[in-house]
Amino acid sequence: MKMNDRIEMIIKEVQEKGRVRVSDLSERLGCSEVTIRNDIRRLDAQGVIKKTHGGAEKKDQGLHVQFVPGEYYLHAEYKKKIAERAYEFIGNGDSIMIDDSTTCCYLAQCIKDHTEKELTVVTNSLYVAAELSSAKHIQVHILGGAILSNPASAMGNITAEGAMQYHVNKLFTGINGIDLKVGLTSTDSMHAEVKRIMIGRANETYVLADHTKFGSGNLFTVCTMKDIKCIITDSEISRETISLSKKLQIAMEIVA
User: Fold this and answer.
1) Are 148 and 232 within one domain?
2) What is the pTM of this model?
3) Which of 32, 75, 222, 248 is the most buried (most CB within 10 A)?
4) Is residue 149 classed as helix, strand or coil in its secondary structure?
5) In terms of Cα–Cα distance, which of 150, 152, 166 is closest to 63?
6) Pick from 86, 94, 103, 147: which is nearest to 122 by CA?
7) Using N-to-C axis directions, what is the helix angle for 3-17 and 33-45, rounded to 10°?
8) For residue 92, what is the DSSP state?
9) Domain count of the chain?
10) Which segments constitute the HTH deoR-type domain (predicted)?
11) Do 81 and 52 share a structural domain?
């Protein structure tokens, strides 16, 4: 069974039963107990479920938004490192905007875990809002709109109008694709429009994107690279892309 399918089943079992045992999951999913323990440990670290002695249980503190397995867990090791580096760009007292990208979900976890910075966070992501809802050092503003299931976020004209009401120090956003000569691109026109407005409402925009997003052109252009303060990516990015970014004078942070 593939990891994403296994993760989906574990989350489903925990949500439906409230509490599960490693031995039962191992038998049900046809994999070793070591594998199940590693999966539970990973999900516990991500705040999705709570690890217990011999198993796992449903989290019952604060708001909770369940992920649709897939994109969130894809390249997770890169996304975590990118999020950790992005957190370093946030200053105490900053007002920031965070979009609904999966990498930004990891950033929300970093913000929650590090309590030394008091922040105001504006987001259209239900996960980000839920993750930060119980954090006493964070003031959360959530944008309204039509709710999408994957990712769990608000989207549409109301979301765009809501974003227009704010002005923040920094925006942290993910993206479907990056063409260094063209700019940021999206597969969806409304997503592109909301991101475009968010970029316009921030003094600085930081793009959180793993190496797979480069060279990927999509139908809708969000903005040019001149609108971006910095791209934060992982070390698997190609030498050609690094060379081109230097030639075009595009700021890039590469995490090992």
Assistant:
1) yes
2) 0.75
3) 222
4) strand
5) 152
6) 94
7) 70
8) T
9) 2
10) 3-58
11) no
Helix (H) or strand (E) holding 245: helix 239-247
Separation CA 39–CA 28 (nearest Å): 14
Is 62 domain-assigned?
no
Give the domain CATH number at 36.
1.10.10.10
Strand partners, 247: none
Q: Note every long-range contact of 48-53, with CB atoms under 8 Å and residues 24 or more positions apart, other chains counting.
A: 48/11, 49/10, 49/11, 49/14, 52/19
- DSSP strand pairing (230-234 vs 183-186): unpaired
Residue 65 in any domain: the answer is no
Tokens for 133, please give them: 């809802």
Strand-pair partners of 149: 152
Could you tell me if residue 132 is inside a domain? yes
Q: Is 70 inside any structural domain?
A: no
**What number of residues does the chain have?**
256
Residue 58 CB neighbours (<10 A): 17
- Measure the CA–CA gap between 135 and 122, rounded to whole angstroms: 14
> 169 and 223: one domain?
yes
* pLDDT > 90: percent of the chain: 75
- Whether the predicted pLDDT of 61 surpasses 70: no
pLDDT of 204: 98
